[in-house]
Design brief:
Blueprint lengths: L15 H7 L24 E5 L8 H14 L4 E5 L5 H5 L11 H7 L7 E3 L3 E3 L8 H5 L8 H6 L8 E5 L6 H8 L3 E7 L2 H20 L5 E8 L6 H14 L13 H7 L4 H4 L4 H14 L5
Parallel strand pairs: 1-5, 1-6, 2-4, 2-5, 6-7
Antiparallel strand pairs: 3-4
The structure holds adenosine-5'-diphosphate and magnesium ion.
């Protein structure tokens, strides 16, 4: 019997304890005005959102960038943080990672100011380079290694309304740093059976981070991506997601279109590359959902 069974044929096979994390009552919707982090003397602080799924190719990077640009279109100040050594987000904004003298590696490992690695593009980008592949080993002996990113953010939290973190396809120390520094996690899921199984592992990691490192962490939502509306399989996969995760599944769906492959080649978001297309519209709608103006 599979992990994700339909309700009609059997009770949900989802493990009850970690699922309580994901099914916890919905947190109030974020607004840029909200001050989610510990209060300080200054103004409102950034809402920090990680985009995580240990599976590669599920549209983490695409979602981080395009949702970030959609927030920016609505007048928000947005920073994207590229934490993947493959640097896809950095490259998607037309930045050559090999040309960088400093990257998020230096921020995490050598405590360089994050301002030193931020480039201004459609949104601000804290850039990654291949060096990040060695960051987990370099950090592994450091005291407070799970909190390096959280510390790096402290001086810039008031400079932004949203900080969107693109994570690598693993649940290692880099992703733990992202989750520890975040208020919310958005989980892009490719609507296929095998992709959905990995959600249990991710859910367990979020539960551990919540318990030991960051009690404020919430799963903002699960985003069906790469949806092929022509197939019955995709339709069923979304139904199974909704049966197991209820209103934690966003109402927004990101359907498959070649625009997502074309835009990064031009160093642009889909919202800039094809502003009136369906793909841009889908991420604008998602932004409205996250901002609490849309419906679930
Ligand atoms: P991840 O960061 O999870 O590895 P990416 O965002 O890099 O995933 O997406 C994986 C691939 O799928 C990329 O080539 C990207 O251009 C493509 N892609 C992402 N979203 C879509 C979509 N909605 N339709 C078609 N291709 C997409
Ligand atoms: Mg990626």
């Amino acid at each position: 019997m599979g992990l994700f069974e339909r309700k009609s044929s059997s009770p949900p096979a989802f493990p009850p304890s970690p699922s309580s994390v994901i099914n916890a009552p919905a947190a109030p919707k974020a607004t840029p005005e909200a001050a989610p982090q510990a209060a300080s003397s200054g103004g409102p602080k950034a809402q920090v959102i990680s985009f995580a799924n240990q599976k590669g190719g599920v549209a983490k990077t695409t979602t981080t960038l395009n949702l970030a640009v959609a927030f920016a279109e609505k007048g928000n100040r947005v920073l994207c943080v590229d934490l993947d050594p493959q640097s896809n987000l950095t490259m998607s904004q037309g930045i050559d990672p090999d040309s960088l003298e400093l990257s998020m590696y230096d921020v995490l490992v050598n405590r360089v100011s994050i301002r030193e690695v931020i480039r201004k593009r459609e949104i601000d980008v804290a850039c990654s380079s291949i060096d990040l592949a060695g960051a987990e080993i370099a950090m592994s002996t450091q005291i407070g290694r799970e909190r390096s990113l959280q510390k790096a953010f402290a001086p810039i939290l008031e400079d932004y309304d949203f900080i969107c973190i693109d994570t690598p396809p693993s649940l290692g120390l880099i992703t733990i740093n992202a989750l520890t520094a975040s208020n919310k996690v958005i989980v892009p899921v490719q609507c296929e059976y095998l992709s959905m199984r990995g959600l249990i592992q991710l859910q367990n990691t979020v539960a551990m981070v919540k318990e030991d490192l960051n009690p404020n962490l919430e799963i903002e939502g699960i985003l069906p991506t790469l949806v092929d509306t022509r197939t019955v399989h995709a339709k069923e996969a979304i139904e199974i997601l909704e049966e197991n995760f209820g209103d934690r599944v966003f109402a927004s769906r990101i359907t498959k279109t070649v625009r997502f492959a074309e835009a990064p080649v031009k160093g642009m978001s889909v919202l800039k590359y094809d502003p009136d297309g369906k793909a841009a519209f889908a991420y604008r709608r998602l932004a409205e959902e996250v901002l609490g103006h849309g419906s679930r």
